[in-house]
Write a structure and sequence with these properties.
The protein is mainly alpha-helical and about 350 residues long. It contains 17 helices and no strands. Helix 1 packs across helix 12 and helix 3 packs across helix 9.
């Protein structure tokens, strides 16, 4: 029988790769592909994406923030620990963040020169960048709230909140759970969610910090509620999937589903580790960060290439089936390709690859 400390460690290790798979699905095949063939997305496909990319997969980022906050803080906190934590994050977060953005700029810039028709016209092209555009690509592009490699907004916000962590520690020590609740309510009502520094980041990073500073074991806290979450979470998912998009009920239901889904995902992982010793092979887990940082914007170009093989005259019913298959399979294929690329790079350029993934093993 595992003690809670060991169980928590194994649960966190188990969750990392599936959560990254969820992030890739968010940026995979969505309703927009119907526009390429002048079709309106079918109701069944909308339901599918509402349950997956707009439902189950939305757990990933808040849970990553929660885990990050839990691991960043310590029960006893001082400036020496703070400086040591930041020093380590330079290697694990800042350097990979800069490198992946730079590599993205170079690769997409080259594509825009060589194969311009494969690139979306939503943004200014890299060859058109001035110095300010280039610098902003590492922080906040144009009027968008994302860096050039869009999913890295998570790393950017995480680095900012870590810099501000002494204030969060002070707030938790002075106000306890009320400090966290303030941010959770702000996030729940969809206030300033994704900005720098958005309420999603503050709420869940602070929640993780509060659990750690209070000496609580994250898994031990969740286990008593997991059986209830297994029932409630699917109901919330279905209600959210059937509710009009961006309505007040939709926002409230979706955010309730995220909270319940976090409990359910930690609950499933803890149950699997306890009863069946669940473990994901190192072949996959070692590539987790690379898959996360390298899937965008390239998966979008991969999808465009696949769409070239579908005739424009295809009947709607056939395309609907293809859209289902692409939505479910393309992210898995692309993740598999990235895992192979990672291990190839690791073999050929071990030191550079280690730098790319923040010296993770």
């Amino acid at each position: 029988m595992l003690d809670y400390k060991e169980l928590q460690s194994k649960v966190i290790d188990l969750l990392r790769f599936p959560l990254i798979v969820a992030v890739v699905f968010i940026h995979g095949v969505g309703k927009d592909i119907f526009n390429n063939f002048n079709f309106i997305p079918s109701n069944d496909f909308i339901l599918l994406t509402n349950l997956t990319t707009n439902g189950i997969c939305r757990i990933a980022v808040p849970l990553f923030f929660l885990i990050s906050g839990y691991l960043f803080f310590a029960k006893k906190w001082n400036m020496r620990i703070y400086k040591e934590k930041l020093k380590r994050r330079v290697h694990s977060l800042l350097i990979p963040y800069l490198l992946f953005n730079l590599i993205g700029l170079i690769i997409i810039g080259a594509f825009q020169l060589i194969v311009p028709e494969m690139i979306s016209g939503n943004y200014k092209t890299v060859p058109e960048y001035g110095l300010i555009d280039f610098l902003l690509a590492f922080w906040k592009m144009d009027k968008m709230n994302i860096p050039f490699v869009a999913p890295l907004w998570f790393i950017r916000n995480l680095m900012v909140v870590m810099l501000l962590s002494p204030l969060i520690y002070w707030g938790i020590k002075k106000l306890g759970g009320w400090f966290v609740l303030l941010f959770l309510i702000s996030w729940y009502v969809n206030f300033y969610t994704f900005a720098i520094l958005g309420t999603m980041c503050l709420a869940f990073f602070s929640l993780g910090g509060w659990l750690r500073i209070s000496g609580k074991n994250m898994v031990e806290v969740i286990i008593p509620y997991r059986k209830y979450s297994f029932i409630i979470y699917p109901i919330l998912l279905l209600i959210g999937a059937l509710t009009p998009v961006n309505s007040l009920l939709d926002i409230m239901t979706d955010n309730a589903a995220i909270l319940c889904g976090i409990v359910a995902s930690v609950g499933v992982a803890s149950w699997g580790v306890e009863h069946y010793s669940w473990k994901i092979p190192v072949l996959f887990t070692s590539a987790t960060f690379f898959v996360y940082a390298a899937h965008v914007p390239y998966i979008g170009q991969f999808i465009k290439i696949l769409l070239k093989f579908i005739p424009k005259s295809i009947p709607f019913m056939e395309f609907d089936v293809i859209a289902w298959l692409m939505h479910l399979i393309v992210p898995i294929i692309f993740i598999s390709l990235l895992i192979m690329i990672y291990h190839l790079l690791k073999k050929i350029f071990p030191h550079f690859t280690s730098l790319l993934v923040g010296e993770r093993k």
